[in-house]
């Protein structure tokens, strides 16, 4: 019965992770409409970048803190809390009326969505013995990777019948439904009665502020109801009577939480968690990660590997990281407990994850780019279907890797898997304009995705096996952070490398005036030469990705080589 309940809990957590992962990609199709709602034109795409980077910032920056809290407070309460945060972020995004509110909603969504992963991986370690963790880890990894396939399809299906707002309203509803289903899995010591007055105050406050954001025409144009939307000072909607009522209800809610015998937020229990967590160290690490993310996420690779604000952001990251290290040595309860990641396979898994992210991002970004450049210049759907050949193999590999982990050590399995992906990248680096028309390309893309998928469970398992039970959440968070930071740095560095190859190839092409000279045949030759320069760019990117994959494979063989002393 206990194992059945554990499987049900893991299934809910996995569904939540898959749904949140899909939300990472769901914005791709909705972005143009979201830009219009934010008052941006298609020509201002760079200004819309925070809609995506905001989600990424929330997804990564506070992940270590959430992982540590899950170690101290429990997996299920953190999962429920993250789903509520995800739902709140979805509501704010759906009701967003300008760039600031949409980005704020995406940031909060990212915090909730990213926070689901560490407690879920830790939950597997809590529930299954080391020799049986492989398959559950593989299944969770597969569900997470399916998000990259399901996300755009989910967005397209909703947009076919509704608007981009509906995507996020549905996100909120699904997030709350999964959270409600998780309530029955709370440990007995976390079960508590409902603070009905507190809940009503929270709902009323949220309702008022939501109306402030939406400004429904039926209410704003009403003779009486419209008065609630008229600012009492200035012209901000946040200074209207309705907004002031919302603020008052929030104050009443805070007072209720401070005085209720069994408050809705259980702040006394969370206060104990705060006392056992180095919040200053967590803040410093969050600032450091945030600065690194913004440095690379907002970069324009055509100009530099890092953004133009790097001159400020990188020193901030360095100072914050220094403060975090200092706090780790002197705090009574450091965010990363001392000696918690000293085992070679533990920190080795994090290093492998970084290079896996650096290689993986090249496939996600540049395979569709290659397809658009060669076989589908005017068909975005066909280019996406080419990437699908790679993506569908990822979850298959994740499950297969989890099963193989019962029979093979993590190090050799991971090394072989990533060497397979690296070899496939080397093949891609030789592709020309006709390569995608061959069935061989499908085999190469599927094998590359399979390799990445095979590595998911072994890397996670090696980390969890060589860390103590009371830091599994934190360790899992650091693994995810390493992969995401690797993706950011990887896409920036590889794109810059590719552009250098492109410019080098272009320099060898005669000027169009000389080459064309009024001849249609010569002009076609010029266009073909420019296409070949673009292919040279992508060949350089795939070569760099192969190097990253081989580095990850070598690190896995060297650092994850200890086999667990499994009990059969």
UniProtKB/TrEMBL annotation:
Entry's localization field: Cell inner membrane
Name of the protein: MFS transporter
Pfam families tied to this protein: MFS_1
Record keywords: Membrane, Transmembrane, Transmembrane helix, Transport
Record's GO cellular component terms: plasma membrane
Major facilitator superfamily (MFS) profile domain boundaries: 9-564
PANTHER family associated with the record: MAJOR FACILITATOR SUPERFAMILY (PTHR23501), VACUOLAR BASIC AMINO ACID TRANSPORTER 4 (PTHR23501:SF191)
Organism of derivation: Aeromicrobium tamlense
GO MF, any single term: transmembrane transporter activity
Topological type in the membrane: Multi-pass membrane protein
Primary subcellular site in the record, as a coarse category: membrane
Transmembrane parts of this sequence: 48-66, 78-97, 103-125, 137-161, 167-184, 196-214, 238-258, 279-298, 310-326, 347-371, 383-405, 412-431, 443-464, 471-494, 540-560
UniProt key word ATP-binding: no
UniProt xrefs under InterPro entries: MFS, MFS_dom, MFS_trans_sf
